[in-house]
Amino acid sequence: MNDNSRAIEPLLARLCGGAITGKDYVGYFMNEHGEELVFAQRRGDKTARLWHNDADWEMFRVGDHSIRVDGAMDGMITAGELIVDRSEATWLSSCLAASRHLRPGRD
Q: What is the C-alpha to C-alpha distance for residues 88 and 31, in angstroms, rounded to an integer?
């Protein structure tokens, strides 16, 4: 896409306050409560960046094995240090799978 005025990366960068460029694989999600999440994977980075507006847009690093279900905590799902619900985990898993080729050793 050559028309930068229609690029999604600057919009997502403004939304979450993160450094997102046209070189990133990006994803956006809004859950059933209207909470927004932004995902960005840069080629060559070992992990992706994840922002969640319910966590005050704090950035979390996530990778291929970041999504965990804790059976001892009634099935609580986490992505790195962030608690997510099932729909958010499903979306994040899709983003990680779609951007896997950008992480080192995945060419």
A: 7
**The whole model's pTM is what?**
0.88
Count CA atoms within 13 Å of residue 9 on its CB side.
14
- Are the beta carbons of 62 and 47 closer than 8 angstroms? yes
DSSP the chain: ---GGG-HHHHHHHHH-----TTEEEEEEE-TTS-EEEEEEETT-SSEEEEEGGGTT-EEEE-TT-EEEEGGGTTEEEETTEEE-HHHHHHHHHHHHHTGGGSTT--
pLDDT values of the chain reduced to their tens digit, one per residue, 107 residues: 455 556 899 999 999 999 999 999 999 999 999 999 999 999 999 999 999 999 999 999 999 999 999 866 677 899 989 999 999 999 999 999 999 999 987 54
Q: How far is CA 65 from CA 5, 26, 97, in A?
A: 35, 19, 11
